[in-house]
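Teaching assistant here, posting this on the class forum so everyone can see the example we discussed in section. The complex has two components, and the goal was to see what a joint structure prediction looks like when all of them are supplied at once.
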Amino acid sequence: MNGTILQPEFLVKIDGDKCDKCKRCLDYCGFGTFSFNEEVLPNHFKCVACHRCVTYCPHAAITVVSNPLSFRDHPNWTPRHIQNIFKQSETGGMLLTGMGNDLAYPVIFDRIVLDACQVTNPSIDPLREPMELRTYLGKKPDTVAFARKEDGSEEISPAIPDNIQIDIPIVFAPMSYGSISLNAMKAIVMAADRLGTIAYTGEGGLPRELYPYGHRIILQCASGRFGVSAEYLQVGIGTQIKIGQGAKPGIGGHLPGEKIPEPISETRMIPVGTDALSPAPQHDIYSIEDLRMLIYALKEATGYKPVCVKIAAVHNVAAIASGIVRAGADLVYLDGFRGGTGAAPNIVRDHVGIPIEVAVAVVDERLRQEGIRNQASIIAAGSIRSAADVCKAIALGADACAIGTAALVALGCHVCQKCYTGKCSWGIATQKPELERRLDPEWGSERLCNMLRAWSIEIKEVLGALGINAIESLRGNKERLRGVGLDRPTLDVMGLKPAGVGMGD
Amino acid sequence: MMDRDERNISGCGLTGMLNKKGLRINGQAITQSMSVLRERGNGLGAGFAVYGPYPDRKDKYALHLMYDNPVARRRTEEYLSAQFQFDSEEPIPTRNTPSIKDPPVFWRYFVLPNEDVRQAENLGEEDFVIKRVMHINKCIDGAFVVSSGKDMAVFKGIGYPEDISEFFMIEKYEAYTWIGHARFPTNTPGWWGGAHPFTILDWSVVHNGEISSYGINKRYLKMHGYECTMQTDSEVIAYLFDMLIRRHRIPLAHVPDILASDFWKNIDAMDDGQRRLKTALRMVYGSALVNGPFAVIVGHNNGMMGLSDRVKLRPMVAAEDADWLYISSEEAGIREISPDIPRVWHPEAGELVVGKLEVN
């Protein structure tokens, strides 16, 4: 008895004929599912379906299946609601979860299709012709002025502000040191360096041994100010002010003391074993003019490196983003309501915020209406699952996309949503040394590079089919998108036409 | 008769000829060149841009209007008389041409901005004119501004180039630049305004191709106050030239760095100064990159230019002697009117061919 009336979500089956009792599975499971008494005995309650044991059982003796236990059909009282009430009536607590929103809201990305050339304009073969994905993130002026240097050559004066060059329009999303392991961070920054793109730190600061990758890192400054020091701010190529996160708009964070061992404590600059509480708002930002002060404080502190402001996509996102740009931000980072998290209350993760597809479209349009689109780049995040999502987000108006969950999946994550337990069997969302060392940063980095190389090839294939050979011709080019099965108000809000409508207006 | 709901896409033939010395010739030569390119059109659109036809009224904006009905004309004239001072106005002469069916009515007005209105809005003369043109095209149903520059005109409509030439009697005009266009739209256009050239102020553009980046070019131009109203992607090129050269003062030589930019691999290999400059232009003007197949001829009061896309997906030939610059879709279009021209070349992808009027 577990003292519960809940039934296990998964059943772990061990094929006694195949199992040679090597007991590897006992070590592999971070959640303590297995015990041994003459044979391997699973405790089904503990299994989270992360497949670590299944993947590495030398005899393929383990199977994990969903518990087929049936409830009487009820369209309203689903097993999810029943089980959540069971849990809360047993614990009296708020339900916690990890990763992104898993409710079945319509996925707008999956209801948008891309265009291609036929006859009247030629498609371009990406195997024969250059296809350019290079992107510059940051503030650009609206015009340039030419001047003559003393030697008679032309130059642009004043010079345009420093931008961040990325070779692919995909960056790694902020995931804090503490929520993910050092090895996971290493794999990500190494991949960013090899791919010519950038990674964000989360709010947990930057471990000292990653300082050599600073030229590929945007450093976060969040409400808890963990790990923020004068030295830290100098290391990166830019800073990010985190206002909100798509998985938990409007609320703070709580990294429990048991996840603050020595290295985390040192990087976050808090005592070992103390809870790290991130306040819901930044307590020096209670209004847009406060944000402006922090933006310029960070610029002053860093010699005017670009400043990015990250917000969760909420109802008023367009006006908020406009204010952020006018406050001086060089990048606006939009995190949609499907964005991932290391830990969030179910109620917020699943019910607050708006889809990134809509947020990008309305923010891009608002910045254009106000004539300030050149003043900041837009990063779209919040469940970018594939190169197709990247293409669509860019066509909706993003300069680049950020991937968090997708990167973790490349490192072995099976989206079991138990990040908040710190028991990740794949060595990703954990600080336990015996689990973390399973993740070899070299191996991880190679997998990330492979994934993004594959995505890049796919994006180039799409550009070629669209008959364009530079990513800037896709950016904001909603004319090359059509909605399938989207309702009229959604199409109008996003500035999209339904499939079947030609290129007229 | 007006169907402005569908954007027309088309293949095309084009020829431009500039007399650098400013010698004015009549419209026979351009008609002859366009007749050689007949196969590139399908009789569903043709037009001519003409520079220097009104030497006695060269300081006035020559607004060429097309009306579908008398109401449109009345509404437009009411609007114009509030916004402009009139020098003169007249119907544009046309002749009955058997192959031209059901043409709209054409008028031209020689005007200057009403100074009181202009100063109240604190706009420069040219921006004032652009705003009025955009207003008429967008807001007055059945009226369309065919051209709005000084000492220039556009004549265009539905038909083969020879038919349009005959209809507008272009052999009666004398000009130092002639630009012609024959169109092959892929659907049946019902609207004369959809034919080329497209214009704003004295800029005229004829275009062969389809702009695959149209969606973003249009949104970018809108941010800068240009409304695309003509159901065709070609007009964005006219507006981009106006914005870059007149408003942003980008030197002509650098316009291709924006509209048909070099590839990064080539830019990266340039010396520091050039690399910085071209990188900056691409960063700032990425949304003005015209992507997809195009060959364009752009006319203006001081000359003529030709430009093709960054990988040259549409044909363009140029030829030159001491007096003349020719640009055409085909060498045949040039040889037809200048058989012995000494220098003929095929401009590279993204290479700007520039012809300047040497006298004013």
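For the discussion questions: The mean pLDDT of chain A is 95. Residues 135-479 of chain A form a domain with the TIM Barrel fold (CATH 3.20.20.70). Think about how each of these relates to the inputs above.
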